[in-house]
Structure formats: C-alpha cells, structure tokens
Design goal:
about 90 residues, mainly alpha, two-stranded antiparallel sheet, 5 helices, about 50% helix, TIGR03643 family protein, CHP03643
Length: about 90
C-alpha cells in the first residue's frame, strides 16, 4: 500500500493523530479511513522518528483502549459523550 498516494496530507495527519490518542481504537481508524491496524503501524513507523515509534508501539501494545475486542462491554461507541458531534467534517452547533 502506498499510503502517500491514497491519502491527502491532512488525512494522513488525522490517522497519525488518532493512532497517537490512547482512547481511539484501531477499529475507529479502520472504520473512518479503511486502514487496518497493521497498515497504521507501518504508517506510524515511516512517519515517526525511530525512538518515537518505539515509544508509541510499547505504549499501545496490548492496551485495552486501543483494541476494541479487549475493551469491556461497557464501551460501545468510538466517541466520548463529551465529544462534539461532527458531521461532514464540520462541527455542529447545538
């Protein structure tokens, strides 16, 4: 997969941001961008400094919040209840 051709710079930045966030599961990235966990790992490896990548991998490996199947039944959504609703990449006003 040549991810630089598949995604815009903005989309790539968002994938990296979501991967870096502890509470965003890999399944949410796959749902939104069609990128598997393995592909996310490859993107992170290519886009980050070696030391930063190692630190990130160590942190996310086996982390319950990054793997939806390891989470309990109490977590159903990808979104926090405090997160604003986003529709069409525009923040909806209440």
């Amino acid at each position: 997969m040549n991810y630089k051709e598949k995604f815009t710079e903005r989309e790539l930045d968002r994938i990296i941001e979501m991967a870096w966030e502890d509470r965003t599961p890999f399944e949410a990235i796959e749902f939104q961008f069609g990128v598997t966990e393995t592909e996310v790992i490859k993107i992170m490896e290519h886009e980050m400094k070696r030391s930063s990548f190692r630190m990130w991998r160590k942190r996310v490996q086996g982390r319950k919040t990054k793997h939806r199947k390891l989470r309990g039944e109490e977590v159903k959504n990808f979104r926090s209840s405090r997160q604003r609703h986003i529709s069409g990449n525009k923040i909806s006003k209440r």
